[in-house]
Amino acid sequence: MGRVALTVNDLDRVTAFYERAVGLHLLRRDAATAELGAGDAVLLELRRDAAARRRSPREAGLFHTAFLLPSRPALARWVQHAISDGTPVVGASDHGVSEALYLADPEGNGVEIYADRPESEWRRRDGRVEMPSDPLDLPALLAQAGGAAWAGFPEGSTVGHVHLQVGAIAPAEAFYAGTLGLDVTCRYPGGTFYAADGYHHHIATNIWNSRGAAVRSYPSTGLAEVELRLDAPRAALIRERAGVTDGADAPFSLTDPWGTSLAVIAR
């Protein structure tokens, strides 16, 4: 997963949220855009459009961007920071494969902060990953903080996955598993999870808030683009399946059945 781009009405307010509440570092900023990340890696791009209509939570688009911390102690330090700073966390779960906390930015874009458990601890059944939504044991997690203070997202943090709202599951699977060639790793009622190379999920799609949603109408706030960074052979297969004929080695863009844009970049 590469960077996620969001269109926002209030660039100052949303940038400040991702710096303070989430802990991303501001890497570049001008009047129209802000790039935030960890180390020198851009994880989030914010694009200002003060006139864009505010996206409804019932539309297709973003469910949440999930920022992956490199260790459980780092997640524990983030939780300590969130408690001391009064960050409004809206959920917390132990998914078996990971421990996660959830919040929303000032314009309603979902955010997940999480750390993976070792893959040896992931439970699988019939070739699929089991991802329950059990209560998170916060005291056990906080015990891992080790006394160190939170200093923002450490180098090595990434966009672990992006969870999308779609209008229907069957066409979502046809696009994300069929055209993109991702493996279906888990199914919930109303949701499907997809990944490459054995991960629990890089992309998820659900209809929990958006069943029957139409193609997205722009300009609007919310998700503008998701980058997928792939090896050249995998990118070439996607190009072939999608019928893209221009520039054999150049980045290209696809849209899912609801108009969500994905930029495919061969590494």
From TrEMBL:
> Could you cite one Gene Ontology molecular function of this protein?
dioxygenase activity
Domain of life, source organism:
Bacteria
Oxidoreductase among keywords: yes
Q: Which PROSITE patterns match?
A: VOC (PS51819)
Q: InterPro entries recorded for this chain?
A: Glyas_Bleomycin-R_OHBP_Dase, Glyas_Fos-R_dOase_dom, VOC_core
Q: Does the keyword Aminoacyl-tRNA synthetase apply?
A: no
Annotated VOC domain ranges read: 1-116
Q: Which UniProt keywords apply?
A: Dioxygenase, Oxidoreductase
- Identify the PANTHER family for this entry: CATECHOL-2,3-DIOXYGENASE
Q: What is this protein called?
A: Ring-cleaving dioxygenase
The lineage, from the top, is: Bacteria, Pseudomonadati, Pseudomonadota, Alphaproteobacteria, Hyphomicrobiales
